[in-house]
């Protein structure tokens, strides 16, 4: 029987519950070993592995519907962009639930080293047709998790460059993700580039929800919040690198 979406819970509560239920959010032991991040050589006390969701069909569908609910207020989007590889699943699922007029594309970190050497994957002739008819494109970048926003910035810079080369105007620009760390540097970049940012939940809230509902221990909650409150200071105190390469 299909789960009834959104019943009795806020979006942030339901997403927190899903991620804790499937063990997608973790806290390292107090003395380590700590989690290594994609922005090497950074390490941290907490880790959110949203890729776990791809193996849970009901939860994957629910997350996509919650993203739609968070984003859409009588608006139509032309493009949902995802990053390789973690952003591909949430972007494709969101594009699907938004309907047939919304099209999914993903952006590689670098041009493919074989075949057509593409960096933006999808039917770009279709994009040109839509842009010609509307005289603009309305886009969403969908990610699984955003901390520094490195992959999101890669997606945007590559797509913006392609659009500028084709004289395509970008109108509505939104970013969504399942989990945000609440990184101030990323928030500044979002404002600078003119995006509207719509995460489903902030990571500190997940730990607050988990402790309140006995899904994590009080000690785990304290360790997580101490780290998230000031990541640079936390790393400095442990003699760990504070900046990515």
Brief overview:
The chain is of the alpha/beta class. Helix content is 42%, strand content 20%. Helix 6 (184-193) links the parallel strand 9 and strand 10 (196-202).
Which term fits the overall shape? globular
The assigned structural class equals alpha/beta
Which fold name is given in CATH as the topology? Rossmann fold
SS summary, helix count: 9
Q: Report the average pLDDT across residues.
A: 93
The overall number of domains is: 1
The oligomeric status of these chains comes to single chain
Low-confidence stretches: 1-6
CA gyration radius, whole angstroms = 19 Å
Largest beta-sheet characterization: 6 strands, mixed
What this model shows, in words?
The chain has 245 residues and is α/β, with parallel strands linked by helices. The protein has a single domain (11-237), classed as Rossmann fold (3-Layer(aba) Sandwich), CATH 3.40.50. Helix content is 42%, strand content 20%. It is built from nine helices and ten strands. It has helices at residues 11-21, 57-71, 88-98, 124-134, 150-165, 184-193, 203-212, 218-229, 231-237; strands at residues 25-27, 35-36, 43-44, 46-48, 79-83, 103-107, 120-121, 137-146, 170-180, 196-202. The strands form three sheets. A six-stranded mixed sheet has the order 7-6-5-8-9-10, with helices on both faces. The protein starts with 10 loop residues before the first helix and ends in an 8-residue tail after the last helix.
């Amino acid at each position: 029987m299909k789960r009834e979406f959104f019943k009795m819970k806020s979006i942030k509560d339901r997403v927190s519950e899903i991620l804790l239920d499937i063990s997608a959010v973790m806290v390292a032991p107090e003395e380590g070993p700590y989690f290594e991040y994609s922005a090497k050589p950074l390490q941290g006390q907490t880790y959110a592995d949203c890729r776990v969701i791809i193996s849970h069909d009901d939860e994957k569908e629910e997350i996509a519907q919650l993203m739609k609910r968070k984003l859409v207020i009588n608006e139509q989007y032309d493009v949902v962009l995802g990053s390789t590889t973690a952003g591909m699943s949430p972007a494709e699922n969101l594009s699907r639930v938004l309907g047939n007029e919304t099209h999914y594309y993903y952006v590689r970190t670098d041009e493919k080293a074989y075949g057509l050497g593409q960096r933006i994957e999808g039917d770009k002739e279709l994009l040109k047709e839509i842009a010609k008819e509307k005289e603009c494109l309305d886009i969403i970048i969908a990610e699984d998790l955003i901390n520094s926003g490195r992959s999101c910035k890669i997606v945007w810079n590559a797509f913006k460059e392609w659009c500028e080369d084709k004289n395509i105007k970008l109108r509505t620009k939104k970013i969504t993700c399942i989990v945000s760390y609440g990184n101030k540097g990323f928030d500044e970049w979002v404002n600078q580039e003119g995006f509207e940012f719509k995460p489903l939940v902030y990571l500190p809230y997940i730990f607050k929800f988990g402790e309140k509902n006995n899904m994590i221990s009080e000690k785990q909650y304290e360790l997580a919040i101490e780290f998230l409150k000031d990541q640079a200071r936390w790393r400095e105190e442990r003699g760990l690198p504070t900046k990515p390469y």
